[in-house]
Amino acid sequence: MQTQWEPTEQDIADARVTDFARFVEARTGGQFGDYAALWRWSVENLDDFWAALWDYFELGERGETVVESVDMPGARWFPGTSLNYVDQVIRHARADRPAIVHVSEQEPDREMSWDELLGRTAALAQTLRSHGVEPGDRVVGYLPNIPEAVIAFLATASVGAVWSACGQDYSAKAALDRLGQLEPKVLIAADGYVFAGKYRDKHEDVAALSAGLPTLVATLGLDDLAAHSDQPVDTVAVEFDHPLWILFSSGTTGLPKGIVHGHGGVVVEHLKAVALQSDMDRDDTFFWFTSPSWMMWNFQVAGLLVGATIVCYDGSPSSPTPDALWGIASRVRATVLGTSPGYVLGCMKADADPSKSHDLSALRTVGITGSSLPPASSLWLAEHVGVQVASISGGTDVVSAFAGGVRTVPVWPGELSAPYLGCALEAWDESGKPVRGEVGELVITKPLPSMPVKFWNDPDGQRYRDAYFEMFPGVWRHGDWITLTDHGSVIVHGRSDSTLNRHGIRMGSADIYQAVESLPEVVEALVIGAEQSDGGYWMPLFVVLADGLELTDELRETIKDTIRTEVSPRHVPDDIIVAPGVPHTRTGKKLEVPVKKLFQGGDSAKVVERSAVDDPALLDWYLTQRRT
Predict the structure, then answer these.
(1) Is the bond into 7 cis (omega within 30 degrees of 0)?
(2) With contact defined as beta carbons under 8 Å apart, do 267 and 290 qualify?
(3) Fewer Cβ close by (within 10 Å): the C or N end of the chain?
(4) Is the pLDDT of residue 518 over 90?
């Protein structure tokens, strides 16, 4: 396959990963002729790699031990080393560029200086302490993607407390399903937000959320975050694995799982991912379309760790026109722009031509995540944007990527250029044998510092082990199908589990079931998300209706409105289809994964063992609904 983008000699010479390679060569005496050689060294010498990364970024004193054991789970990184995430932000404060650019649909763009960011962070940290917030306490947010969300996170982390948040597209109930598990001490919330030209008032949801969190000692609004302190941010040094934030799984099989990440693991992983893999530094403007509900929000905040300017946008990427996101990127002079395959497909269908309609001369890289980017979409970006396309794949589980773009490696259409440094990525077949050139399970054979410290409310670690290490004991199985190519790239074929992933936002089917199956007209429901060959994503909802009922237009709207109100607008399905039943395993679990595989063209004889299904004939009916 032909490449669609090649780095120039100057790109390679100027890349931060090249500078890092020189740094490693000087301290080891080794020679790395290309990125692949550096990657091989990084995974074969974990201790040396992560120690070199720590020293390269001048993170301060560290203990002699880098990692105790490489067993998974159980690896303990940098024991005896203390730090605070916020200290790495403070060290990059400057007066010549803003820290944040705030973009909204209805107000002029606003720049927030580093002085304002840190002054307001210091003031909020003082407020949190006045409410008794101590290291280990939880502070939660119900906020859109605005600078105050960043301030709230930084203030929380600075005092050693633990941050967790939901975007305001989630209903109060959906937010409570997540944040309610954490027994938080403080809630920080906004009154509402604007999306697609409409103001979404969230007063009632904030009140319901506050009432549903009995451990709260305070609920703070945006006015409480407006104060500025002239005193420096007072940070608490914490252990490397001290919890920084809690992100949530999609909730496919019940309540979402709280995934806990530590200060140190996030700092070293994000410096690697942002600086070495994405080639960002203090001259960049980093804009990823995201929400505080999604790990890419946490990833974008990492731009502050290298002194870059980040962009907070809480509106629609397609309002007032389908190419609105490109217009914002032009206006803020973004150098790295992140979006999803679904948005790219929407621009293609709208006949958008971003480079002709907007001044994208500052743009260097388009990042893509959320689902697989088809070759046709990648080539469209090459033609209509004309920069490096850096597809990445990772997840909430590690709040980063396993593979993606690198400034020194070519881009092949529809492929991720290379595994990330330090990430021992392989593709395995079902027997645990490594494969190349064919589809296998994405596995990580050696630990990463940003793997979860633990799951919340998982005292013996059993849920954690079950999530990643059940199929291959001692090896992380992620739940993606991939192919490793002969030129070192990675092709991602989609999830091998049932997580919904629409427009780059991971969602759980359990949230939809809770809403829909509460309706008296609906006996049971099944939802799947199937990646399409053209890069689209089809999310149908199958409903089993009560005896004698038909799916009238009124009932169809009732179902949609229920999902929109009780979960979020993003969870509203593309189609609602009446089904004769829902197939289950013999133990009563809905067969989401097999049905999804059927809709992606899988052979019914191989997708599921029919004898293990409570009503095998239902599989034949679902086959008749498959798109051709």
Answers:
(1) no
(2) no
(3) C
(4) no
The pLDDT, as a whole number, for residue 254 is: 57
Domains of the chain: 9-77 (no CATH), 508-624 (3.30.300.30)
Per residue in 193-205, pLDDT (tens digit) is 999 899 999 999 9
Confidence at 252, pLDDT banded by 50, 70, 90 = very low
- In sequence order, the 6+-apart residues with CB closer than 8 A to the CB of 484 are 425, 426, 427, 435, 436, 437, 440, 490
CA distance 133 to 162: 10
pLDDT digits (tens, 9 = 90+) for 215-229: 999 999 999 999 999
In angstroms and rounded to an integer, the radius of gyration of the C-alpha atoms of the chain is 24
Q: Long-range contacts made by residues 594-601, C-beta under 8 angstroms, separation at least 24?
A: 594/619, 595/526, 595/528, 595/619, 595/622, 596/498, 596/528, 596/529, 596/530, 598/622, 598/623, 598/626, 599/528, 599/530, 599/538, 599/625, 599/626, 599/627, 600/494, 600/530, 600/531, 601/626
Residues in the chain: 628
Least trusted range by pLDDT, from 55-64, 286-295, 531-540 = 531-540
| Angle (deg, nearest 10), helices 263-271 and 46-56 | 80
Residue written as tokens 């007063």? 203
Residues 6+ apart with CB under 8 A from 220: 127, 186, 187, 188, 189
Asked if residue 73 has a cis previous peptide bond (ω within 30° of 0), the answer is yes
Nearest-CA neighbor of 517 among 552, 543, 498, 539? 543
Q: Looking at the predicted structure, is the pLDDT value of residue 611 above 60?
A: no
Q: Burial-class residue 333 by CB neighbours within 10 Å (0-12, 13-18, 19+).
A: middle
Q: Both tokens of residue 432?
A: 């645990």
Residue 508 pLDDT exceeds 90? no
